[in-house]
Specification:
The protein folds into two domains: 299 residues, Beta-galactosidase, Chain A, domain 5 (Distorted Sandwich); 205 residues, no CATH class. 40% of the residues lie in helices and 22% in strands. The strands form four sheets. The protein has a nine-stranded antiparallel β-sheet, with no helix packed on it. The protein starts with a helix and ends with a helix. 34% of the residues are buried.
Length: 695
Amino acid sequence: MKNYLLGIGFLILAFYLIWQQGSEQIDYADQRSTNQATSDSPYPIAEGNTSRSFSQGGQTAQDGESSTELFFESTKELGQEKLSLGLASELSSVTFSNHTGGIRSIQLHQSNRLNKAYDLNHTEEPLLGIAFEDSTGNLLPKALPNPRDFQLVEQTDKRVVYRWESESNLRIDRIYERSQDDGYVLKHRTVFTSLRDVPMAIERIRMSLGSSFQIPRMYNPFDQASTYLSVGYYNDGAPLAEGCSCATCSGRIDGEREEFFQLNEMGPTGKIEPRRLSKAKWACVNNQFFVNLLRPETELSDLRVWGESVQSNQNEQGEEVLGISGAISFPLGILQPSESKEFVFSLYAGPKDYVELSKLSFEQKKVMQFGVFWWISEPLSWSLNKLSSLFGSYGLGIIFLTIIVKLILWPLTAQATRSQKKMQALQGPLAKLREKHKGSPQKLNQEMMKFYKEHKVNPFAGCWPILIQIPIFLGMFWMLRSAAELYGQEFLWANDLSEQDSVVMLQGFSLNVLPIFMVLTQWYQMRLNPMQLGPEMSEAQRINAKMMRFMPFMFLVFLYFFSSALVLYWTIQNIMTILQTLLTKNVVLSDANADKESKAREKGFERIRDNADEVVSANEEVDEDNRRYRNLLGLKVRGKIDAEKLELRYKERMKHYSPKRLANMTEQKRISAEEKRDKINEAYESLKKELDKES
């Protein structure tokens, strides 16, 4: 009872500290928003509905510093931004902007792959918005003065074209195409055409990857939104030289293949240094469930990736909304008179759906960010989608996926459970062995290894279930945390499997039912496998046993704030473990049935013995010990003992007391069985000596 009271006390304390931490975090966010609203912004304000200019990778070049003299006409006042809706499909619709002919927002519709609609808004620079820069990455505003007044020259169901033209200088065409078979993918082409009679030099083009903002989620002290906001890329060429490029380097950025720079890794500057890719395949900006992923159709040399934080936005409640933005830049070079240069891109703007992303080339599925356990997360994600499609529910898909994984691991965990029970049964002899050799550790290790070998047990076999469950749990965790398929999916009382299964809010605190049910199943699971705390147990073993009793409460505190999908997986995992434990106990009980049969036979021998006693008492007096020994071995009470029958009956009885059967018995039954075994040995030795004397 004392342990339960301690557990409840620790649990209340943990929730109180988490509650306090949440209140402090909210107060800090409010204070930070107020400070930002009253302080001078270090970024210049842009025209239109953007909140600030896009300036990654260096300061904007000053007037007269441009090395590219294009002599365009003076800047025009554009006025209100003009938006146009187009390229609509069952999955999404696109809102275009006349500001550089980019994309202001993409509306993702509810579908069989996305249960909840979502808008990909780009409040900063429009997605695919363009600008000019010099070789060092500085923007050149006078090289192309406010190229925002693009004209919509063509619009059909499958094609949208924007054009900007400077008389006798340059024409820029922005072409967007889409078919119903493309899913969330848009095909985009930007064409630069020289209108001069002499060559024109334009060093580099910067193209925006858009912005991505945190998705409103319930409070979770263990899972911060900043870890989901990232700028990423895939480099298929030589690895990048990496030291500690980010202010707070996580150690996972090594310059190999795919890299994702999270918002919390950008440090106080809120920027990442430009990444010069040797062979770029794609770049992206993403949050927890959605991504803007841009892939050049042709290889671009010297492609650079930029990224910075966006923290000046606020929601309807006036709270700070974290965000991140990114861009790529690539060289344009020399345009000969009347020459055109075309750059073709494939844009995936939609949910982080593993099924859809795995259809795309050049490892675009890596934006799921499954981490080091991708080899577990990827097949689990594929299986979850197949099962959910089969049963029509992602909740049922998670349940059946957990059952299948558990059944695959069943033989190994069952063997480990049996080995664990054997080890528990041998704790008494092991304690005596430790006491005997406590002054000689080397001798103790030798004797223990010999002891394990004689009893055919592996002391480490019981650890396998835990060791196997760790990568599977982490693989499932990384898979479920970014699965957009779960966004808005309902199951039982949970309104969203990607969120906590809140049933009611109490003073700002969410009451979640599923984690409570989970901890009950884990507690019952531990009750089915109680640790033996006999007098022979060491103090360290007693402490470990007590710590294990608090494990369910630790899981409750940790998983209470995570998605209901993850808690559902762990709950079904516990239920399957309970079922396996009960079935394993039945197997052990079946071995114990042999002991019952042995007892029944012994009762039969007792009846024979009683009848024999009557015959003996009527004819002759027999030695009491001799008669008892014969009865134990099922031999005739009088007459000469048959040596072959003695050996046969002895071997038959000793089969019931093999080390394997003794190991599967409870401590009380084992002690009783060992006493009977010793009596049979004593009877056999005595009768054997009697036979030797007669011979």
